[in-house]
Every structure is written in structure tokens, then in C-alpha cells.
Write a structure and sequence with these properties.
Layout: E1 3-4, E2 10-14, H1 17-20, H2 28-34, H3 50-64, E3 68-72, H4 75-78, H5 87-102, E4 106-112, H6 118-121, H7 129-146, E5 152-157, H8 161-167, H9 180-188, H10 204-224, E6 231-236, E7 239-242, H11 247-257, H12 259-265, E8 270-275, E9 278-282, E10 285-286, H13 306-318, E11 322-327, H14 334-353, E12 358-364, E13 383-385, E14 392-394, H15 396-407, E15 409-410
Parallel strand pairs: 2-3, 2-12, 3-4, 4-5, 5-6, 6-8, 7-9, 8-11, 11-12
Antiparallel strand pairs: 1-15, 9-10, 13-14
Helix pairs in contact: 7-10, 8-10, 13-14, 14-15
The chain binds beta-D-glucopyranose.
């Protein structure tokens, strides 16, 4: 059965600057990637060279049938030193966003997607209240320069991720500040190791609180700068389930990880839901993947139906419109990706049939790109990228999703 989506529903794909642009040398992650003993499997290097190839990528996105592009602008390029705003970088992003509009694509712009200017992280980073103020100043400047070309604005990408990773036992209590390569990175940038706090390095709970403040101030700065676009935040949301005895852990996970942000989002214009899998909790806390459920290269379960629970939860908790700002799968098997999107879009349809106000859907990701500490191993793209030549080749999933976008209708039977 074919499901038609409401007129104006937005279909797009998403990327983040550091993962695709290449040579993002003024940011904190660049230093972390290049410090001896690093946890990063490989440095980001040229990434997908989108800094130079953006016009081709945007043309391809439009040609595939999509109507929107979610991308991030890089604070470290726009403000490489405190108070020095690069007109050239802002002009570059004006060209990128303008190219989207030239191709009939709307733009969804994330102002911070994990990476920060090195000077920010070296001076207290995401553990310091000052970063919220500095972020707001950057939001003000970027909105004044680019706002007329932005159709939707996201302040921060997944500010709840550090707490989420702490629950999963991936981030130690207190964060990564005392890990030797991080101490060495702090030394290399002349920072005191106690005050070197990039996102994912600083104390997860402290980072969460500074990010809550940054979201609020960033939103205010955008609105005061006359943002003509809706503003929201995007959250890392997994479906949460408890087996008997795990209810308290599940409740705590929701309380610490989502509730503070969902609460703030009630004053936003939308909530960005980003879903990949599910988390289960038992009496001892988060459980490993369940037997019989396939495990993906990222270490979590293949669980496309998670989108239904997360969209419902976000809508109910905030009462603002939902935009699925990321959803996808890291796999080398595009048939598995096609099956994943079939299940995920079916879940989305169920939510919308129940009257939930969902305004758009962005597949993560347009390109096979730099997957942070995992390097170029996991492939989330619907378009593959040849690491030698940078040649782009759309996969079957790109054609199918593009067709959904073009027709604004989804037929599960075609995703076979
Ligand atoms: C992030 C992306 C990342 C994706 C896949 C999200 O948490 O926003 O940057 O590549 O998940 O792991």
C-alpha cells in the first residue's frame, strides 16, 4: 500500500561539516585525531573534500529527488580565533546554502555538530559556562550573515550524547580528560589538562548542563538576530526498553539523558529526533544486544523500528512538531540498508497516521563519511565515496529514498 505524505513534508539527507568537508584544522578534534596514542582509528584528513565539491554533492542530492539538505556550519572555520570571524568562511557557507536554493533544496543548518574551535576547548570547553556565551555570540554572527539562506536551524547536534555514552559505559565517569592522549593533546595546545574539555572529552554531566545553557542562549541569539527560520535542538534518541528489574535504570536513563532537553524544547519551534537503534536495561543497567538480534558494525542492534518509539516520545514530551533529523544504518550491505529504511519509514507512517505532527525526514547520511573514532570503517552513506578518487556513486538506497522524496509517497513494497 502506498502512503502519501502531507504536502510540504520535507525529505532530505544529512551530513556534518567535520565528517565531510576535510582539513578542518582549527578544531579540537583535529588535534585529538593527530595526538600520539589517539583513540581515533584514523584522522579525518580530506574527508569527502566537500569543502571543494559541495556544488556537485548538492546537484546530486537534487537529481536524486530530495528536497532538502541538512548540513552543519563549522564554528572553528567561522571563528578560528576568539573574536576573529572569517568573512571568507561565512562567504563560503553563503555559496553552499545559495547552491542548495539554486537547486530547489531547502536548508537545515546545524550550528554545532561535535567539533569546536580549539581555542574554545582549550579554555574550559564544554565544561565552562563561558562556552555557552561564546556559542551564543557565534550564533548571533552566523545568523546575521547566513540567516536569509537558512530554512531551519539546529543549535546543537546531540548534546545528550555524552550522558548517553556514560550510561552505556562507553565514557568513564568524569569523561576522558585523564586519558594519556588527551592530556598530551592539552599540552600540545598549551591548555591545562583540567580545563581542556572538547565535546565527548569533558565530564558528561557538566557538558550536558553547559550545553543546555548553550542551546537556550544560542536560540535566543538567533531569534534576536532576526532568525527568519524555526529553531530547535537535535537529540540522540534510542528506543528504551526494560526487562524485569531494569525499570529503574530505564527511568534514570530517560531522566538524565532526555528530560532536561525535552523540557527546554517545549519553547523551541521543533524537536529533532535522531535514531539508530534501541537500548535495553536490566537490573544491572544497560544490557548488551539481545541474542538473535543482528549486531551492526557500530556494536548496537539492527533495530529500525526504534524510530516509532522515539518519535512518539519526543512529540508527547514536547508538544512541538517533530523533524527526524537523522536516521540510518552503518553497513556495507546496501540491501540491509534498504530493508532498514523500509522498516523505519513504515514506523514513521504509523506515527503520522496517529496524527503526530512530523514535518520532515533526513536520512543519515548522504555520503560514506568520517565516522569519528571509528574512522572511515562504518559506512552510513546512501552514496558511496571512493577514498582514492573521491568519486561519488549512488547506491540503490539513494535511488529508492530519492523516489520517495520526489513522489512524497512511500510504498514499502518498492523497498525490496
Ligand atoms: C551523529 C553523526 C554520526 C551518526 C552515526 C549521530 O550520532 O550525529 O555525526 O555519524 O550518529 O553514528
Amino acid at each position: 500500500m502506498v502512503h502519501a505524505f502531507p504536502e510540504g513534508f520535507v525529505w532530505g539527507t544529512a551530513t556534518a561539516a567535520h565528517q565531510v568537508e576535510g582539513d578542518n584544522t582549527h578544531c579540537d578534534f583535529w588535534l585529538l585525531e593527530h595526538t600520539p596514542g589517539t583513540m581515533f582509528k584514523e584522522p579525518s584528513g580530506d574527508a569527502c573534500d566537500q569543502w571543494h565539491r559541495y556544488a556537485d554533492d548538492i546537484a546530486l542530492l537534487a537529481e536524486l529527488g530530495f528536497g532538502s539538505y541538512r548540513l552543519s556550519i563549522e564554528w572553528a572555520r567561522i571563528e578560528p580565533e576568539e573574536g576573529h570571524f572569517s568573512r571568507a568562511a561565512l562567504e563560503h557557507y553563503r555559496r553552499v546554502l545559495g547552491t542548495c536554493h539554486d537547486h530547489g533544496l531547502s536548508t537545515c543548518v546545524t550550528f554545532h555538530h561535535f567539533t569546536s574551535p580549539l581555542w574554545v576547548s582549550a579554555d574550559g570547553g564544554w565544561e565552562s559556562e563561558r562556552t555557552a556565551e561564546r556559542f551564543a555570540r557565534y550564533c548571533d554572527r552566523a545568523t546575521r550573515s547566513l540567516g536569509d539562506l537558512v530554512d531551519r536551524g539546529c543549535t546543537l547536534n546531540e548534546p545528550n550524547l555524552p550522558v548517553s555514552l556514560a550510561h552505556a559505559g562507553v565514557l568513564p565517569t568524569g569523561g576522558l580528560k585523564h586519558v594519556p592522549f588527551v592530556v598530551e593533546a592539552a599540552r600540545r595546545c598549551g591548555a591545562d589538562a583540567e580545563h581542556f574539555a572538547p565535546f565527548l572529552v569533558g565530564d558528561p554531566y557538566r557538558v550536558r548542563d553547559v550545553m543546555l545553557a548553550a542551546h537556550e542562549r544560542g536560540r535566543e541569539a538567533m531569534r534576536e538576530a532576526g532568525a527568519p527560520f524555526p529553531v530547535g535542538v537535535t537529540l540522540a534518541m534510542q528506543e528504551g526498553q526494560a526487562v524485569p528489574g531494569g525499570e529503574e535504570h530505564l527511568a534514570r536513563w530517560k531522566r538524565e539523558n532526555f528530560e532536561p532537553f525535552l523540557e527546554l524544547a517545549r519553547d523551541d519551534d521543533f524537536i529533532g529526533v535522531q535514531t539508530y537503534s534501541r537500548n535495553r536495561f536490566g537490573p544491572e543497567g544497560q544490557l548488551p544486544p539481545e541474542e538473535g538480534v543482528p549486531v551492526l558494525i557500530m556494536g548496537y542492534e539492527y533495530w529500525p523500528q526504534a524510530l516509532e518509539a522515539t518519535v512518539r516520545y519526543a512529540a508527547e514530551a514536547t508538544s512541538v512538531p517533530v523533524v527526524v533529523t537523522e536516521n540510518g544504518i552503518g553497513t556495507d550491505d546496501d540491501e540491509q540498508r534498504v530493508a532498514y529504511y523500509r522498516e523505519a519509514l513504515s514506523a514513521l507512517v504509523r506515527c503520522m497516521q496517529d496524527g503526530i505532527d512530523v514535518r520532515g525526514y533526513y536520512a543519515w547520511s548522504l555520503l560514506d563519511n568520517y565516522e569519528w573514532i571509528h574512522g572511515y570503517g562504518p559506512r552510513f552513506g546512501i552514496v558511496s565515496v571512493d577514498r582514492e578518487t573521491q568519486a561519488r556513486t549512488p547506491k540503490k538506497s539513494a535511488r529508492l529514498l530519492g523516489e520517495v522524496a520526489r513522489s512524497n509517497a512511500f510504498d514499502p513494497a518498492s523497498f525490496a
